[in-house]
Design goal:
single chain, about 325 residues, alpha/beta, Rossmann fold, Dihydrodipicolinate Reductase, domain 2, 2 domains, eight-stranded mixed sheet, six-stranded parallel sheet, about 30% helix, oxidoreductase, NAD(P)-bd_dom_sf, Gfo/Idh/MocA family oxidoreductase, Gfo/Idh/MocA_oxidrdct_glycsds
Length: about 325
């Protein structure tokens, strides 16, 4: 393919700034059409972003002959339906995180991709951002020696400001999201652990609803032991006071440590030589570096930046962490 022509299914809030405009800013990429079940909102999005066509039916967008690649940005409950339909239609597929409601659905998409020969990439977009590429390089070059432990803390209030609050708040409806805020935010952190440390050997966790504020888990913890013997411990709480909010990942090695917020812009490296803080400017469109890699992959000019098989592993970890007490 000389040009990737995109259709977006689910042109909601996440596509306004984070991803949508980037499809027209990447070389060899063009946004042709958008879809939203609310026709008025779909038309408004297309008008504001100068997108040639809009639809209120995802199947009609998938069948558009001028589109060769589909970006699925709906709530996770409909990811599998649209992904399978797009693959049957011979389209490339780029799927938002979490890729599905659970690991079994992700396996179904992986099997369909294998049978159809279609290309599927998953929007674990932090893999492509300069800040996390810098951390990956530090780890690969053993800047802090051999990694021993990584500690994730994501503690937020009952209505996290990190998340766009929608009228229906689908993120705390397990039927639509797979769980609660953990399912929405943890893929960013847990996928980075898989990207940094490779294949896991063991993982387990537990989840509970502490506050009773809504009908899903608001406290989750878990552990991953990787084949290279790195141990990752994670704690996610969505019921603490505003004063106790935390977003921190701390990676400890035999010769130092690396600390960073997954939703922030600075990395602190501590070694025997001292402490260094490296700041990264915010990106205008946080998915643009990833979309560039996906476009190259779809065109045959690069590797898959995040495969559906990798997402299957991640969803297996999320499923294990989400087990109720």
């Amino acid at each position: 393919m000389s040009q990737i022509t995109w259709g977006i299914i689910g042109c909601g809030d996440v596509t306004e700034k984070k991803s949508g405009p980037a499809f027209n800013k990447v070389t060899g990429s063009k946004l042709v059409a958008v879809m939203r079940r609310n026709a008025e909102k779909a038309a408004d999005y297309a008008s504001r972003h100068k997108v040639p066509k809009w639809y209120a039916d995802g199947r009609l967008l998938i069948d558009d002959p001028k589109i060769n690649s589909i970006y699925i940005a709906t709530p996770p409950s409909s990811h599998i339906e649209y992904a399978l339909a797009a693959l049957r239609a011979g389209k490339n597929v780029y799927i938002e995180k979490p890729v599905t409601l659970n690991a079994q659905e992700a396996i179904t998409i992986a099997q369909a991709a294998g049978q159809s020969g279609g290309k599927v990439a998953v929007a674990h977009y932090r893999r492509a951002q300069p800040m996390f590429l810098y951390i990956k390089e530090l780890l690969d070059t053993k800047a802090i020696g051999d990694v021993r432990i990584a500690q994730i803390k994501m503690w937020q209030s009952l209505r996290p400001k990190l998340i766009t609050q929608t009228a229906d708040n689908w993120r705390i409806n397990p039927a639509l999201s797979g769980g609660g805020y953990f399912h929405d935010l943890s893929p960013h952190q847990l996928d980075l652990m898989l990207y940094f440390f490779g294949e896991p050997d063991y993982y387990n966790g537990r989840a509970l609803n502490q506050s009773g504020y809504y009908d899903c888990d608001d406290n989750v913890s878990g552990q991953i032991i990787f084949k290279n013997k790195v141990v990752v411990n994670g704690s996610w709480s969505f019921n603490v006071s505003e004063d106790e909010k935390t977003d921190q990942c701390h990676i400890i090695g035999s010769k130092g440590s690396i600390s960073f917020p997954v939703f922030g812009h600075d990395v602190t490296v501590r070694t025997r030589a001292g402490e260094k803080v490296v700041k990264f400017p915010p990106l205008e469109h946080v998915q643009q570096p990833m979309i560039e890699k996906v476009v190259n992959y779809f065109k045959g000019d690069g590797d898959n930046p995040c495969s559906i098989e990798e997402a299957v592993v991640l969803m297996g970890v999320i499923d294990a962490f989400s087990h109720p007490l």
